[in-house]
Description:
Radius of gyration: 18 Å
Number of helices: 6
Helix content: 10-25%
Number of strands: 11
Amino acid sequence: MSKKPVIGVTEPSSFTDDCISTIENFFGANPLKLCGNVKEDIEEWVDQCVGVILAGGIDIHPQTYGYAVLNDYGFTKFDHKRDLREIHIINRCLEKDIPMLGICRGHQMLGVFHGLDLVPDLTGTLVCHQPQKQQIAYRKDEPMHWVRLIDGADEFQPDGAKKSILCHPISRDANYLWVNSFHHQGLAFTPNEERVDAIGFAPGHKDERIIELMKGINHRWISCQWHPEYDWTENPSSKMVLEKFRDLMNGETLQRVSFPKPSKSKKN
């Protein structure tokens, strides 16, 4: 019997069970929970992994991205030890060239690690990113908003997206994906960002666009703001993200995505 590969997943998190199920059922791998705080142990565990999933979870502590704890920002709970642990995990993965998948909070952690601006609270933005706060009865596998793919991101268009009700774009334009949403923080989108490759962003006014899909430059990682572990069996957008992560674990690289030049004549 061949030995199954090991994929690490960060925790504690209410999303852990779904991530473990995805590791077992989509990737056919064994999950390894990365939850200790001793650096030497973390390194030993990470080194056993063919890939690491930075899972969703509670808010990132503002100190991690250079803020203070502010009033009326929707903060509920922090785990600063987890923040520090995940920074060390990211460092180790980059050092050892171990592929990473960032999901929601993990997506934000990769952005913070690379110096992107984290918006502490999206409650007042045009698009609803956290339906619970609006008392919306919302299943975790239901689409919440669309993500616009940046020009040049053709390889991230999932097959059959136009045929899927979960991915069907408003304008019948293949550059839009439909995704679920469970977050009140996000990474601010800046055109021509050179620290990461932003691939897609959420709708909104010009000053509130949020990166929803991105990948590393010269490093093997991909991340998304939504939860592919929730709906990958129905949503091609989510399945596509998992497939790209699998490609990275198989030694493949993702093509560099070019940025469009901002146009003053276009709105959002």
